[in-house]
């Protein structure tokens, strides 16, 4: 089943001489259990693509479906519900709340969605255990290492059985070994049935995905899907 | 590097016979450098000629065992201490191809770069899959194979970064007033 379906998606910013076409006719699907990476130079439209996929922005043309629901058909309140229940976000700057513990940060999207505290806490602890952080659930973000904080952000993106994880340079400024742990974790979540769309400029990170897509000037490079042109060097 | 240094390094762990050296060499290089047994014995006889190893009799099954000499130990210590000189690679096919692509009329250099990037990322993905499936190292020494694999991963990454750089440079020359980032 496709968790994310984008069809003919175009996103323009500005008009007339100031018109910038951030995305032009993008078709992209991410299936359950699939880990897709999007690479492209600065200004290629990577971040716009991710924002549209998560309902943080609306396309100028085309449709975006998350778990089968056309986001254009939703009013603001229902779109907000999709953002809380179906999609999870992992950004480079983690946006963890410093005055909440790891567990409370992970509980937050559930509580915003009206889940009772007791159940939200149980679910948060379960997902923290899955990312290997059960023993630090009660600590504040400042008392965690960089790699642990990034795993808390991933736990928050996964809690409540959300099916779509959207990641923007999720390894941030982590060293390469800790960064590998984060990517290993995202890959494991996909193996468990989540769909993950990650944008990155780092080929070594993109290489953890099942599929790597190249975006140039707002368009997906179709030729990149061609078979290997020569034998390995 | 030569096979000499590899075999000498293995012999610092203790006396070994030929097939044992071959197996350990391949294991510690993550099977990226397969040896045939003929190469191993040729190398051992040269090391013996240079007094870096000496025959140490035969084991219970009649296999010829070699032991490292003091001179051999000094040689391998010097090898570990000296940084590796990569040397200029003037005949790197990819660099030459890109250089010719930007200077040959009618060739779309950007298309050459993008096709190469897609291929290199696929290679990188295959290598990363091997790494993802490898059991995590727990004991010291189990890292060896993974580290060799990762050297290939980082080399591929460097190639992609260089391709990115080439493409950005070409774009800047073609369109001096590049539009701002989105």
Mean pLDDT of chain A: 87
- Tally of DSSP helical segments of chain A: 7
Task: Write the CATH fold name of the largest domain in chain A.
Answer: Rossmann fold
Number of domains of chain A: 2
Unreliable spans of chain B are 178-182
The structure class of chain A reads alpha/beta
| H and E string of chain A | EEEHEEHEHHHEHEHEE
Give the arrangement of secondary structure elements.
The complex is a heterodimer of chains A (233) and B (182).
Chain A: E1 2-13, E2 20-31, E3 35-39, H1 46-53, E4 61-66, E5 69-70, H2 76-85, E6 87-90, H3 102-112, H4 117-130, H5 146-158, E7 164-168, H6 176-191, E8 195-199, H7 203-206, E9 211-216, E10 219-220
Parallel strand pairs in A: 3-8, 3-9, 6-7, 7-8
Antiparallel strand pairs in A: 1-2, 1-4, 4-5, 9-10
Helix pairs in contact in A: 3-4, 3-5, 4-5, 5-6
Chain B: H1 3-11, E1 16-17, H2 18-28, H3 37-49, E2 53-58, E3 64-68, H4 70-81, H5 93-103, H6 109-133, H7 143-174
Antiparallel strand pairs in B: 1-3, 2-3
Helix pairs in contact in B: 1-2, 2-3, 6-7
Task: Explain what this protein looks like in three dimensions.
The complex is a heterodimer of chains A (233) and B (182). Chain A is of the alpha/beta class. Chain A has two domains: 1-86 and 164-221, Rossmann fold (3-Layer(aba) Sandwich); 94-162. Chain A has helices at 46-53, 76-85, 102-112, 117-130, 146-158, 176-191, 203-206, and strands spanning 2-13, 20-31, 35-39, 61-66, 69-70, 87-90, 164-168, 195-199, 211-216, 219-220. In chain A, strand 7, helix 6 and strand 8 form a beta-alpha-beta unit. In chain A, helix 3 (102-112) crosses helix 4, helix 3 (102-112) packs parallel to helix 5 (146-158) and helix 4 (117-130) crosses helix 5. A three-stranded antiparallel beta sheet of chain B has the order 1-3-2. In chain B, helix 1 crosses helix 2. By secondary structure, chain B is mostly helical. The relative contact order of chain B is 0.10. Mean pLDDT of chain B is 85; it is low at 178-182. Chain B folds into two domains: 3-81, Winged helix-like DNA-binding domain superfamily/Winged helix DNA-binding domain (Arc Repressor Mutant, subunit A, Orthogonal Bundle), CATH 1.10.10; 93-174. Chain B has helices at residues 3-11, 18-28, 37-49, 70-81, 93-103, 109-133, 143-174, and strands spanning 16-17, 53-58, 64-68. Chain B is elongated and about 70 Å long. The A-B interface holds A 13, 20, 22, 39, 41-43, 45, 47-48, 184, 187, 201-204, 206-209, 212, 214, 216, 221, 223-224, 226, 228-230, 232-233 and B 93-94, 111, 114-115, 117-125, 127-128, 132, 153-154, 156-157, 160-161, 164, 167-168, 179-182.
